Amino acid sequence: MKRLKELKPALVCFGIMTILCGMLYTAVITGISQILFPVQANGSIITILQKDGTEKEYGSKLISQDFKEPEYLIGRPAGVTNLSPVSKEEKKLVQERIDWWHSFDPGNPSDIPMDLVTASGSGVDPHITPQAAEYQVNRIAKARGMTEDEVRNIIKDYTSGRFLGFIGEPAVNVLKVNLALDGLL
């Protein structure tokens, strides 16, 4: 009986904290985010109105999509490797990706930008550098029967600059470019 008396305050505290932190706090934060940031809170899904009046979801502008066709801009390799940049395993993966690019786009004389052969820290980065996008312009233009300038203009439309003009690096959103190439944006 004495042990139950000693355990009671801990159990009451556990119950109260579970209600406060696990339920009430979660509900309040979810409600605030739905009111102030509904698009972001729901995954920043790109939804496009179709000709028949229905809406179709194409993916999140915050998560990479897997494109491997010649007519599309291809993003960073997916998957988090958590390998040291100087490890044998990482070097092997990078070499495999370089070999893939050479077989996929054999006529491209340019050096392959590093972000096309190395995974991002999250493994789902939806952006590539403008240099990585430029590397792919010729292949996309040929595959789509477009001019290189038309492809570059679409890429430019979906390239974000530095935050406040000096923070971060310019980035190209792969999904948005591919949707624009398909004429959906």
From TrEMBL:
One Gene Ontology term of the molecular function aspect: P-type potassium transmembrane transporter activity
Pfam families: KdpC (PF02669)
Record key words, sorted: ATP-binding, Cell membrane, Ion transport, Membrane, Nucleotide-binding, Potassium, Potassium transport, Transmembrane, Transmembrane helix, Transport
Location within or outside the cell: Cell membrane
Main location per the UniProt record: membrane
Bilayer topology term: Single-pass membrane protein
InterPro entries hit by this protein: KdpC
TM spans (from-to): 12-37
GO CC annotations, alphabetized: plasma membrane
Functional note: Part of the high-affinity ATP-driven potassium transport (or Kdp) system, which catalyzes the hydrolysis of ATP coupled with the electrogenic transport of potassium into the cytoplasm. This subunit acts as a catalytic chaperone that increases the ATP-binding affinity of the ATP-hydrolyzing subunit KdpB by the formation of a transient KdpB/KdpC/ATP ternary complex.
Subunit structure: The system is composed of three essential subunits: KdpA, KdpB and KdpC.
Family: Belongs to the KdpC family.
Protein name in the entry: Potassium-transporting ATPase KdpC subunit
Organism of derivation: Lacrimispora algidixylanolytica
Gene that specifies this protein: kdpC
